Amino acid sequence: MKTMHKVPFERHETVRIGLIGAGGRGFGQLGELLACEGVAVTAVADIRPEAAERAAAAVIAAGQAPPAVFTGDTAWRQLIDSPLDLVYIATAWATHTPYAVAAMQAGKHAAVEVPAALTLEECWQLVETSEQTRRHCIMLENCCYDYWEMLTKRMVEAGMLGELVHAECAYIHDLRSELLRDQAEGLWRRQPHVDRNGNLYPTHGLGPVAQCLQIGDGDAFDYMVSMSSREAGLSAYRNRTVPADSPKRQEIYQSGDMNVSLLRTKLGRTIVLQHDVVTPRPYERLFLIAGTKGTFRDYPPRLFLDGVGHHAEWLSLESYKAAWEDPLWTNLGEIARKRGGHGGMDFIMNYRLIQTMREGLPPDMDVYDAADWSAPGPLSEQSVAQRSAAVDFPNFRRA
Ligand SMILES: NC(=O)c1ccc[n+]([C@@H]2O[C@H](COP(=O)([O-])OP(=O)(O)OC[C@H]3O[C@@H](n4cnc5c(N)ncnc54)[C@H](O)[C@@H]3O)[C@@H](O)[C@H]2O)c1
Is the distance from CB of 26 to CB of 97 less than 8 angstroms? Predict the structure, then answer.
């Protein structure tokens, strides 16, 4: 089957978009899309009528024609079958692949929240459907568009850090109260902690690192090993905050609090990938990129360049911003920051998605990225279950 890598979109003067899932994330993303030029949100769907109506009202308030509104269990199917160019999926994890596959089979491009897939079979389904239908599947990995990630990628591409050898990344986000709520993510995001043990959310850390390492464009993930700590954080928090007679008190969480994976690439680079959403600590994604000439490390952002400055001290990035900032941030940073979605990266991501579709460019992130960056979910589970044995990455690109 012919690759979808670097395949351009057909040009769209106006991109007609249908949104499935207008909850916390979907409603936020809708606002970002409505702020982009050349977008018509023609349909919204949510199982909850009030969520779909709220989204429709936002479309109308932005000056657009009233969108088709679909609610109930078959809303997703009706939306996919309506006339549009891009199906934008912001539902719970389990529906990401099924809806993206259905959208592509109906002739639409699919943009899907993270992670795009939960199993290796789903990863393959996305790849094979995209190749067969010649429709793109873009995983909406917004962290690839954050300020420092984009700046670092430019430094890497210019050779500032030399030959890359190692990277570290993570999703460390205390979600305990969110996981135990009786609404929104609390309704579906805790169950994977009961059912699975591994890295449940690998893409925010891994996506930007994979782009710096040019995974799919010169290097490839080869194999990984993974280890989970014991579980303690979520159950302790639950026992402290949830009444003794709540059914939640019967849940047994399999997921270790900290999952650490080590990935090795075909070119011999190593990547540390962590996941922890249940211990009390500040948010971070680590984002360390190390090469023969220097290292970038975020949280807080800092740089070390061989032979520059004092040999034991990080450099401040202030004087590097002007030269290395991505032009998207230079040109759109003010509006992106004002909109505020995750510090501005949500706007930049959506702007780029629409820009590539309008101008007939290849997407920044394709179906192989969606599969590669989602795969450490199931692969980490396999490795953890086998006392951290090495597991191979599938060759989704068949390269
Ligand atoms: N990229 C990011 O920074 C980021 C941030 C938050 C959430 N997310 C992702 O976005 C997705 C949604 O998360 P959320 O926080 O909005 O969750 P949420 O529970 O607030 O919203 C999900 C919405 O989908 C609706 N829904 C559920 N099943 C549906 C179906 N079959 N058909 C139509 N609608 C359906 C629900 O009614 C709800 O309105 C998740 O995959 C999550 O991981 C990504």
Answer: no
